[in-house]
Amino acid sequence: MAAPPVGRYKIGPITEKDTLIEFAITPRNTVKSLQVGDAIQHLAPGSEDSSFLPDIREILPLIQDMPVYDDDVFIIAHAKTGTHWTWEIVNMLMKGSTDYEKMSKARRQLEFHYPDEFQNMPRPRVFNSHLLLHHIPKQAIEKKCKVIMVQRNPKDTVVSLFYHMKASGSFDAETTFSEFLSSWLKLETDTNHNWFYYTKKLQKMLYDQTDLPIHNVYYEDMKSNPVDEVKKIVEYLDIKRADDFIHQVVDKCCFDNLKKADSTKVAALEGVPKQAFSFMYRKGEVGDWKNHFTVAENEEFDRIYNERMKDIKFTYKYTLKTVD
């Protein structure tokens, strides 16, 4: 199990006005979580005195009131769908340089910090978040800042999330993928940690926010045709970048190069050893779910997906065509 956090924040007292739920990670492992609207924060043991994340009850309204610049960019994505990758690419594109960011992606994640911690952040600023559009700064909507959302097929997402949470000590080492998948599919809380709820909200963001153009990126398309997908991002950002520069960005941001570069960055979060986040990069493949799902699990997944996502407009690719 995870060791107590060693961060510099504190979680304030839980009162009867707060919504405290038991979040089932696996059939045997639950974690207490604070819920504010449809945002959630897991409470690690000892977080009352030492947490590496700010109290969500405090941080959420502060994020929404955070002042922004016109050239700020916001990347919104569910966990394990390609946030690191997209964030690094967008940083290079915005700055016109293929130098890797010195700071880790977590240092630029909205819900991981108080807004005043971003005051000295050099522009152009590229933020990321696992929150949703209605959680990010109101000024970002008012000023029509660029918003990029990233998606990945849910089968590979849940596999990646399993290894991420296992490596971080969120549940015991004996927990199997089948056990984790079972709990993941049964999750019904309307929060940003629920992939089904989150993705429905992404659809509403994309199709109902007509006054705020949002760019949708699919992980699988970035893997199969990265140059064309990066060109689309360049066009959306309304910047000009030469083709040779785009090719350099694609090369610098391939999985293996990003994994190597990650070891040179400033620790993900203050007070947390760098090695504690060494599990962020695993395979980065499309179709790895086939190595984990049984036939019965795949059929059950499809049944639940079709039932819960019957009105979804997104189309996911679960494999990539190979070229002989």
UniProtKB/TrEMBL annotation:
It is an enzyme of class 2 (transferase). Keywords: Transferase. It comes from Mytilus edulis (Blue mussel). Pfam families: Sulfotransfer_1. Its EC number is 2.8.2.-. Residues 70-312 form the Sulfotransferase domain. PANTHER family: SULFOTRANSFERASE SULT (PTHR11783). It comes from the Eukaryota. InterPro entries: P-loop_NTPase, Sulfotransferase_dom. GO terms for molecular function: sulfotransferase activity. Belongs to the sulfotransferase 1 family. The keyword Chloroplast does not apply. This is SULT1.
